[in-house]
Write a structure and sequence with these properties.
single chain, 513 residues, alpha/beta, seven-stranded mixed beta sheet, 20% strand, globular, binds nicotinamide-adenine-dinucleotide, aldehyde dehydrogenase (NAD(+)), Ald_DH/histidinol_DH
Length: 513
């Protein structure tokens, strides 16, 4: 019955057994080899997607650059109307798309739906934004002069996304980029190619219904080699890349070598600080969801819990006993809390990390392990583990994309906890659980958390689209989504207009002829 429902969803999303992985809008093609997408849920083949060859990529770039010439001339609120229609289509297809996300990536159905909801939310945000792409006006130092700034579309935006948010990350970028007047070329993760084709099918319908030029939304598919076609291409002024720090360092250098712009959303190593004034019940819920939700495969997953020594045992016991309640299994079954990891490589990394944590002296509080047998045929299901560790362990310093929670102790003042929290190379999400105003404000101050996201009495995991999303240090410094994150998708121009018959120079410089 479950499979039937999946097939129904695939049909509603216009997916076939073999899908063209390259699309310029109305034209679909793909002459490269095919990638097979297997579900981590049950190991079944979902479908195949053709990859993008060099020649395919040239076609895409031609379609995109030519579409840009028209799209940039359409008034921004009219572009917003197209994004509004896209949001409407997403509302109609929320269930099948949410189901595909769950089935291809392995997150729970609820989270799959949540991801589509984020796409809808960013569309709504972008529609409003399409009337608010404001620049400032300034007072000129010269008489009879007016000075202002305006934001113009940038061009072709390249989007490279990770497997763990196979649809939302694209929408965060593309909905804003479109209202800004850009056209987009998207390379989804090679681990979730069907999600990419499904999204492209949806937007193509909207573009066709509005008789818009093809190339406003393009899709390419394949691994890093296809990604490199974008990072090295001068016709792409901005590359937005989401994924590992390892990938970000390569992409950043390739784009910088041609003085392009990159927007990087890379790995996190997120911690919750638990002070003596914390609400323990809230802490347990926040920490457990943060650590095991999406099987620990969120960039904002809680990886470290930094607990004050005075409440250490109490918190530790509460978390350990919460872990005993966790049900692991098919994420489409809503009674399960934890689904599978993305693939067997991820399982190997999880096992290696646990082994290393033990080797470095970590004490296992909740034993991990790979599950087998009924319901676990895909071999991707693992038990969430908790390790008592030290922040200086090499493995604690790394982001392992799996449900492993490291519990660390601090003593004395909250400053000591903040030092541990900041004592890693990543800087994405952070949280403090406290009812103490002084501790909370210290944590949020300039000498507090060094992350792009800092929460009080909320876990590290998940974020609303209204705020700018991203992190510091090796997380890459990029910001996406709300606030003024749209500015990176546009080029700023300063304009000075002289409405007199004189030509005074700036800084009072005299130049008489
Ligand atoms: P990954 O780095 O393996 O792959 C991400 C994407 O980059 C894929 O599409 C891949 O094909 C592409 N890629 C890899 N090497 C490339 C290269 N040299 N040139 C061009 N493209 C290249 O990451 P993943 O395993 O898919 O995702 C997990 C990682 O993503 C985690 O580190 C996670 O924290 C991070 N992530 C970060 C955010 C954020 O917003 N900060 C959001 C989601 C995921």
């Amino acid at each position: 019955a479950e499979n039937f429902r999946i097939h129904e969803a695939l049909k509603q999303l216009g997916l076939a057994q073999i899908n063209d992985g390259t699309s310029t809008g109305s034209k679909n093609f793909g002459s490269g080899e095919t990638i097979s997408s297997y579900s981590p849920v049950d190991g079944a083949l979902i479908g195949k997607v053709t990859t993008t060859s060099k020649a395919d990529f040239e076609n895409v770039m031609e379609a995109a650059t030519s579409a840009f010439k028209d799209w940039r001339l359409m008034p921004a609120p009219q572009r917003g109307e197209i994004v509004r229609q896209f949001g409407e289509k997403l509302r109609e297809l929320k269930e099948p798309l949410g189901k595909l996300v769950s089935y291809e990536m392995g997150k729970s159905y609820q989270e799959g739906l949540g991801e589509v909801q984020e796409m809808i939310d960013i569309c709504d945000f972008a529609v409003g934004l399409s009337r608010q792409l404001h620049g400032l006006t300034m007072h000129s130092e010269r008489p009879g002069h007016r000075m202002y700034e305006q934001y113009h579309p940038l061009g072709v935006v390249g989007i490279i996304s990770a497997f763990n948010f196979p649809v939302a990350v694209w929408a965060w970028n593309t909905a804003l980029a479109w209202v800004c007047g850009d056209v987009c070329v998207w390379k989804p993760s090679e681990k979730t190619p069907m999600c990419g084709v499904a999204c492209q099918n949806i937007i193509v319908q909207v573009l066709k219904e509005n008789h818009l030029p093809e190339g406003i939304s393009c899709l390419i598919n394949g691994d890093y080699k296809v990604g490199e076609m974008m990072t090295s291409d001068n016709r792409i002024p901005l590359v937005s890349a989401t994924g590992s720090i390892r990938m970000g360092k390569i992409v950043a250098q390739a784009v910088a070598a041609r003085l392009g712009k990159s927007l990087l959303e890379l790995g996190g190593n997120n911690a919750i600080i638990v002070t003596p004034d914390a609400d323990i019940k809230m802490t347990v819920i926040g920490a457990v969801f943060g650590a095991v939700g999406t099987a620990g495969q969120r960039c904002t997953s809680t990886r470290r819990l930094i607990v004050h020594e005075s409440i250490y045992n109490q918190v530790k016991d509460a978390i350990v006993s919460a872990y005993e309640q966790l049900k692991i299994g098919n994420p489409l079954d809503e009674t399960n809390h934890v689904g599978p990891l993305i693939d067997s490589d991820a399982v190997k990394m999880y096992e290696a990390a646990l082994k290393e944590a033990k080797n470095e002296g970590g004490k296992i509080l909740v034993e991990g392990g790979v599950l087998s047998g009924d319901g676990y045929e895909s071999s991707c299901y693992v038990k969430p583990a908790i390790v008592e560790a030290n922040n200086s362990f090499k493995i604690v310093q790394e982001e392992t994309f799996a449900p492993i929670l490291y519990v660390l102790k601090y003593s004395g003042d909250v400053e000591n906890a903040i030092a541990q929290q900041n004592g890693v190379v990543q800087g994405l999400s952070s949280a403090i659980m406290t009812n103490n105003l002084r501790e909370a404000e210290h944590f949020l101050s300039s000498s507090g958390s060094d992350c792009g996201i800092a929460n009080v009495n909320i876990g590290t995991s998940g974020a609303e689209i209204g705020g700018a999303f991203g992190g510091e240090k090796e997380t890459g410094g990029g910001r996406e989504s709300g606030s003024d994150a749209w500015k990176i998708y546009m080029r700023r121009q300063t304009n000075t207009i002289n409405y007199t018959t004189e030509l005074p120079l700036a800084q009072g410089i005299k130049f008489d002829l």
